[in-house]
Amino acid sequence: MKNVTDSFVSLIHWPFAGSFGFNTDILATNPINLSVVIGVLIFFGKGVCVSDLLDNRKRRILNSIRNSEELQDGAVERLEKARARLRKVEIEADQFRVKGYSEIEREKFNFINSTSKTLDQLENYKNETIRFEQQRAINQVRQRVFQQALQGALGTLNSCLNKELHLRTISTNIGMLGAMKEIID
Fold first, then answer.
1. Among the listed residues 40, 150, 91, the one whose alpha carbon sits nearest the alpha carbon of residue 158
2. What is the pLDDT of residues 34-44, one digit of tens each?
3. pLDDT at residue 70 in the model
4. C-alpha of 121 from chain center
5. Which string of b and e fits 29-56 if b means at least 16 CB within 10 Å?
């Protein structure tokens, strides 16, 4: 190969730097260069078939495209599943939120009702306690008044009664008790 390129190099005429003009050298023109490159490729590339290389390259590209499409389809499917799960979770979260709010409202209502009932009961207990204490105070006052009245009456009776009046009162009371006993029997 070195001999072939050396022969071409020796044939080429190199123009001086900075010169401008029409290139009449046939080897320096593009069609000749292309035909030489194609000839070299054909001569050295007999064992390599360009169509096989292109077919292999085409197969690799198609396989890559197929793999990419499969990956894309899998990714799209996973994305749809994730979106469906997200929608499901959002719906469940909304349901939990609504249930939570309604549960809070129900607990608040129950708490208010039970507190109101407890307050009513405490008010009733307070009123009953006040009435009981008033009744007890009234009874104590009555007992004191009765005791004082009884002591005053006994004092008056003792001072006013003599023995004879006292005996007559006792015998009258005994007679009344006897009459009551006869009525009962």
1. 150
2. 777 788 877 77
3. 93
4. 38
5. eeeeeeeeeeeeeeeeeeeeeeeeeeee
Number of H helices, E strands in the chain: 4, 0
Question: How long is the chain?
Answer: 185
7 with 1: CB under 8 angstroms? no
CA–CA gap between residue 138 and residue 119 (Å, rounded): 28
Half-sphere exposure of 143 (CA within 13 A, CB side): 6
Q: From CA 84, how far away is CA 137, in angstroms rounded?
A: 77
Q: Distance between CA 28 and CA 36 in Å, rounded?
A: 11
Contact 25, 13 (CB under 8 A): yes
Could you give phi then psi for residue 107, rounded to 5 degrees? -65, -40
DSSP 14: P
- Please answer whether residues 12 and 25 qualify as being in contact, where contact means their C-beta atoms are separated by less than 8 angstroms: yes
Residue type, 153: A
